[in-house]
Amino acid sequence: MDLKSEIKKLAREKDAVILAHNYQIDDIQEIADFTGDSLGLSIEASKVKNRLIVFCGVHFMAETAYILSPNKKVLLPEKDAGCPMADMVTAEGLRKMKEKYPGVPVVCYVNSSAEVKAESDICCTSANAINIVKSIDSDRVIFVPDMNLGHYVSRFVDKEIILWEGFCPIHRRLTAKEVVGLKEQYHDAVFVCHPECSPDVVDMADHVCSTSGFYTYIKKSDRKRFIIGTEKGVLYRLKLENPDKEFILAYDTFQCKNMKKITLNSLYESLLKEQHQVTVPEEIRIKAYGSIQRMLEVPRNF
Ligand code: 13P
Ligand code: SF4
C-alpha cells in the first residue's frame, strides 16, 4: 500500500480527521478530509466529531482547533511549524499597548498565540476582518499583529485603526515594482492578492481576498490568466478546478517554509505515535475561546 493510502487507513482506524490549510504541499491537500483558509478550518474544527484532529498547518492554527475543541486530541505533525508573524506580538507587548490606549477594543488576527487571543476582545481572519472591525462599537480599535491587514481594513471602515507593526515576511517580499513588471508582461492577466501584501501591492490588485477567496473568485471569473499574489500552495486547487486557466505566481519562491514543513512521512509518524500534541492551559483557553467565538458570530466578507 502507498503512504497516502496507509495514512487514510490509519486515520480511519484511529478515528482521526485530517485538516489542512490551503498552503500545504499538494500530497497533503490531496488526502486531507478538509482543506481551507483559517476561518474555514476554525469552523470545521469546532464541529469535529472524531477523537483526533491532525492539523496540517502552522502552530496557531492547531492551537485554535484545540481552543475550539478541547475534548479532542489535536496533533501538529511538525512541532516547529510556526508563523513568524504570529511571533511578532506577545501577550506582554499587547498588555503594554492596552495600557497606552485604555478602553480601546483589541482585534487580533488569528495568526497569533493563544495568550494574545486571550488578551484580545475579538479575533478575525483575512476572510472576515472588515466585518469584524465594523461590528465593534467603538470609533478606535487596536489591531494586532498584521499591519498590512489592518491597513487594508482601514480602507473600508470609518474608525481609527491603531496598528501593531507586524507583517508576514513571505507576503511582504512581493514589491509593487514586481507587480508593475508582471502586469506589463501579462497585460491581459487579473491580479489577485492576499491582504497580507503591502498596501502599494494591494493598490494594484483587481481583487483582494483570503486564500479560499482565490478559489471562489477565480472559478467565477470568465478571464483566463491570473497573477497570484499569495503562497504557491493555492495553485494545487486552482489548477484542479480551472484546467482552462493560466496561473502566474507573483514571484518564484512565494512559499512559506513553515507551511511546507509537514510531509507525508511526518503526518504518518504523528498519526501513528499520536505525537506532537497541541494544548493550551485552561485559564488561557477559556479567554481565547471568547475572542474566537465572538468572531464566529460575524459573517465572512469573502
Ligand atoms: P488565510 O486565513 O487567508 O488562509 O491566511 C492564512 C495565512 O497565514 C496567510 O498567510
Ligand atoms: Fe505566517 Fe506568512 Fe506563513 Fe501565513 S504565509 S503562516 S502569515 S509566515
Automatic annotation (TrEMBL):
It catalyses: iminosuccinate + dihydroxyacetone phosphate = quinolinate + phosphate + 2 H2O + H(+). It is found in: Cytoplasm. Signal peptide: none annotated. The keyword Glycoprotein does not apply. Iminosuccinate binds at residues 21, 38, 109-111, 126, 194-196, 211. One of its GO terms (biological process) is 'de novo' NAD+ biosynthetic process from L-aspartate. It holds the Pfam family NadA. The keyword 4Fe-4S applies. Pathway: Cofactor biosynthesis; NAD(+) biosynthesis; quinolinate from iminoaspartate: step 1/1. GO terms for cellular component: cytosol. GO terms for molecular function: 4 iron, 4 sulfur cluster binding; metal ion binding; quinolinate synthetase A activity. [4Fe-4S] cluster binds at residues 83, 168, 256. Binds 1 [4Fe-4S] cluster per subunit. Its EC number is 2.5.1.72. InterPro entries: NadA, NadA_sf, Quinolinate_synth_type2. Its cofactor is [4Fe-4S] cluster. Gene3D superfamilies: NadA-like. Catalyzes the condensation of iminoaspartate with dihydroxyacetone phosphate to form quinolinate. Belongs to the quinolinate synthase family. Type 2 subfamily. NCBIfam families: nadA, PRK09375.1-2, PRK09375.1-4. This is Quinolinate synthase. It comes from Calditerrivibrio nitroreducens (strain DSM 19672 / NBRC 101217 / Yu37-1). The gene is nadA.
